[in-house]
Amino acid sequence: MKPRIVVDMISCVGHRLCADLFPERITLDDWGYPIIDASAIPPELLSHAKRTIEACPTLALRLDKLR
Amino acid sequence: MTHDGRRLLAQVVNKNRTSLADHRCHIARVSEGRAGRADSRLIDAIDSAGLRGRGGAGFPTAIKMRAVVENRKTPVVVVNGTEGEPVSVKDAVLMRLQPHLVLDGAAIAATAVGANEIHVCIERNNVAAIKSIELALLERAQCEPSSVVVHVHGTPPRYVAGEETALIHWLNGGDAKPTATPPRPFERGVGGRPTLVDNVETLAHVAQIVHNGPSWFRETGTQDEPGTALLTVGGAVAHGAVYEAPIGTPLAHILARAGTPSGVRAVLVGGYFGSWIAGDQLKTAALSNASLRPRGGGLGCGAVMVLPERCCGVVESTRVMRWMAMETAGQCGPCVNGLESIAATMSHIAMGSAQPEALQWLDRWALQVDGRGACKFPDGAMRFLRSALLAFGPDFLAHASGRVCADVEMPKVLPIPNVAPGWR
Lengths: 67, 424
Ligand code: SF4
Ligand code: SF4
Prior knowledge:
The complex is a heterodimer. Chain A has 2 helices and 4 strands; from the N terminus they run E-H-E-E-H-E. Chain A has one domain (2-66): Alpha-Beta Plaits (2-Layer Sandwich), CATH 3.30.70. By secondary structure, chain A is an alpha+beta fold. In chain A, the strands form 2 sheets. Chain A has a two-stranded antiparallel sheet with strand order 1-4. In chain B, the strands form 2 sheets. Chain B has a 5-stranded mixed beta sheet with strand order 6-5-9-7-8, covered by helices on one side. A 4-stranded parallel beta sheet of chain B has the order 3-2-1-4, sandwiched between helices. The A-B interface holds A 8-14, 29-33, 35 and B 178-180, 331-335, 337-338, 341, 364-365, 368, 372-374. Residues 7, 12-18, 34, 56, 58, 60-61 of chain A line the site of one iron/sulfur cluster. One iron/sulfur cluster binds next to helix 1 of chain A.
């Protein structure tokens, strides 16, 4: 089970915060909403990922297990 | 099967509604099961028939049923009679003419998964279909008492309101807008119970499969997509109507049946969230997902719209994209902003007043918007956009560089409905 980031687009309000905090997996589209790279997050990046998830003001991000 | 390939509509005489008495001359009632107890034989029959959903996605019906059954709570069945596609009326026609076939299918689906509650959802402005189903329920209440409760609901007439999670959210008292998944409907749906949502045409096929057997069902259609499909054919044809044809029928056959003029610009197959077929493909394309998926489309809702020779594909596609931008549920940034940007840019292109980079923006945004919403609405919109850029490539180039053709003045073909306010 490998972890990856998923976004709930209904909750996301495009704060852009996450792309600053976790550029390894999150970039922004032309309107400022996060484009998530859904590939597995290696152990050394996991704490970054978790910090980003906690920082999202609308709790739109979560960690999902990739089978 | 009748000589002309009709199955679902075979009993319809002179476009009259089939009464319960007439219906029972052809199809016997299937005995009811018990709430909370699934009937795996019914699901097995639908499985070996190879039935795929006819609401647009084409997902195998038996797999949906098994997923609902896996849950321990007593399930609910939602009959999806919403038809937000502006050019599709096949579900409305089916409910108006063959309400008992649909209700038989719903009853069988309820028995198959062990549900004790059925919710029939129809757009509230589709009065004829609602009346037909309500009358059918009265007929059944008199002659065929049932322990399964059936409710009929008039839903908000918005395209996205017909999406599974949107219907469930609305039935639970919320707005008819899609919700984040998980949970999926088969996990937690109406009243928190596992919920099977099936399109009305799908359920009509279910009734005939159980009555005639899976091998009968497979006698027509293709190996991978057996059976017939209802098709709404319109646009530049002599006889616009709902047709029924085996899946895999060549597009050219249907066009000939509907009386298409020799000169055709392009044909939109699968409704507004389907794809444009043009040029040589008009001769080779068939009405199946196997044939249409490699071309970027699918059978979708089964609508087939014909553009006449003298008609601007850029303008027609732009009008549809405008409508799409207005029909988003307004929830997800990439869908709301992306569709708005795309529609605005397409308008500029259509009018010949676009920036030089406009076509590159469309390509870029098609990639950025695809797959980025809570529901599949933006994905369908991008499928349509990409097929428009492909089918009308030279025309888009001409318009984008300011050379607007004379055909923009021709009468418009694709209908653009008003967008109804409100989500309750
Ligand atoms: S931080 Fe949260 S709300 Fe802001 S863009 Fe990222 S996911 Fe969306
Ligand atoms: S993707 Fe678009 S239509 Fe679907 S829920 Fe989000 S905003 Fe609404």
